[in-house]
Amino acid sequence: MRQRRGTVVNRAIAWVTAFALVVPIVVAILMSLTTSDSLEFPPSAYGPRWYQQVLADPMWHDRLGTSIQTGILAATLATVIGTLSAYGVSRAPGRVGVLVSALMIAPLAVPVVVLGTGNYFVWAEGWNVGPLHVGGKLVGSLVGLVLAHTVIALPYPFVTVRASLAGFDPTFERAAMGLGASPVTVFRTITLPLIAPGVLSGAVFAFIASWDEVVIASFLSTARLTTIPVQIYNKLREALDPSAAVISTLLLLMSLLLLGALGLIRRRTPRAAAEAGR
Amino acid sequence: MSYLTLRALCHAYAGKPVLRDLDLQIEEGEFVSLLGASGSGKSTALRLIAGFERPDSGTIELAGAVINDIPAHKRNIGMVFQSYALFPHMSVLDNVAYGLRQRGMDRKRARAEAAAALELVQLPGFEDRRPDQLSGGQQQRVALARVIVIKPRLMLLDESLSALDKKLRTEMQVELRRLQRTVGITTVFVTHDQEEALKLSDRVAVLDEGRVQQYGPPSTVYEAPATAFVATFLGRATFLSGSVARDDDGRTCLAVGDIAIPVQAPSNVAAGAPAMIAVRPEKVRISGLADDLHPYPGVVRLVTYAGGVTDYVVDALGAEFQVQSQNATTKGGAFDAGDRVWLGWDVAAGLVLDATSNP
């Protein structure tokens, strides 16, 4: 009797939470389908008017281009660095490994506003590290934004590849070496194909991290260089029209697509892991 | 000069020495087993030969050249692992062709030679299968083909048959030996199974505590063990300790209590010196009646029927004797626990060992 009551309470909490999480999204989707001039809920009439407007607007095209460019570049950089670091850490255990792991995961722990502020000052005014001068006059440049986003994206491929490597038998690499493959060739022909699911899912997470990121991007954005999330935020402040809702819905679709891709990658993972474990 | 020479190899893990001055010489085309218990250093020695680690000290010489400084992928030594390590993301043919491709062979020729190697291991038609579609024995053979096809100077096997069930293991042992003889590759085989080592090898190196305790053909290592450790690692034995004495006829004996056991010992051993002999169970004769062939009295403690033989544990001469009797040739049926019996053995069957070595 007590068990059933507990289940009912659990279910109730779950439903309420789901409701609270999903309702704002549903509201945004519904608001995007309005035909009126301003945001209203519930919409008085439904129509694709604002979708047509947004999709034709060159400004949104520009922001989309910026977001995609930044996302792909940052994800690529983060995946390469993250993968190589994870490989290094797995082969060199001990204190060095622990230190590098902590460094790679640190961006998750640092408050994003701190990162944003720091990034702003480095790219805006430059930073002297001994004889090196980093950044300066780079606010509003793609380079600065990509580098900043790479940092926040780093933890994801690092963690996923490290997990992939944990289930990876080093005997495969030894076997390949014994057959005459140099260490680099071994990594390219044996290790990388077998940890590919970890690398790919890390890359997807890294892209999502950059794609959704708004705080650092707003520190580093100018009129010329703006990402989609920053644009939405600006739009919402100046004019509450449904185009913001439309973009949000489109972003949601994009996220769903990426999650779908992740799901496909994950389905390959158990089989690859089982094969690797032989 | 031998083909593979290990000279004074020393190696330690986390401060604990694993190999202590290991010396070994292997001739070209030989099949040598490194036999020992876990921790004896045999797998470590293999890893050092393959080049996955550098020895702390000592040298490894192959065909006259020291190879300590040559990285693993340049040594042209093929290794078969206990887990076979077939690359799961490649087909069987690509697995076997991998080594050839690494040597710069073009794809077509590499695949042709790989297919030939698969025929050699009796797996024709398996080219397009994936490793996870193969049985243990088939994986084993693909792993062998993968190594043989690159024509390495040396083939190393690290307990490669341990993962197979008994029947398959026996088949693979025959297969492996046939293959090795056909191709003629010098082979080093690591195992903890003494029966396997005796069956397969031209010579057996018995390892204990990082050293070679004895190295020789299987019959020598079994019939003439150098130490008590070797005597018990290969087969079983009962040990008798006593002191050297001379009996009434002047023959050298081992005095155990007040019984004199004739032994084959060098005549210059001083009387009264401590000595030890080992007797293999299958060499002990057992009978219900005392006579010249069965002079030593004893009482049966344990009887174990094992199909072709019966194993007895007999209290005799102050020791627990292990006796193995062939059921086909035993007259008068088996004995029961508590029976009074008489034991005996040929003088030559008493293996004289260093009295100071511990079994």
Task: Explain what you see.
Chain A is mainly α and 278 residues long. Chain A has helices at residues 2-32, 49-56, 58-91, 95-109, 112-125, 142-153, 155-166, 171-178, 183-212, 215-220, 228-238, 243-276, and strands at 127-129, 132-134. A two-stranded antiparallel ribbon of chain A has the order 1-2. In chain A, a hairpin with a 2-residue loop joins β1 (127-129) and β2 (132-134). Residues 272-278 of chain A have low confidence and may be disordered. Chain B has 359 residues and is of the alpha+beta class. Helix content of chain B is 23%, strand content 35%. Chain B contains 8 helices and 20 strands. In chain B, the strands form 4 sheets. Chain B has a 6-stranded mixed sheet with strand order 6-7-8-3-9-10, with helices on both faces. Chain B has a 5-stranded antiparallel sheet with strand order 13-12-11-14-20, with no helix packed on it. In chain B, α2 packs parallel to α4, α3 crosses α4 and α4 runs parallel beside α5. The mean pLDDT of chain B is 87. Chain A binds chain B through residues 169, 171-172, 174-183, 185-186, 189-190, 193-194, 272, 274-276, 278, and chain B through 50, 52, 72-74, 76-79, 81, 83-89, 98-99, 102-103, 131-132, 146-147, 150.
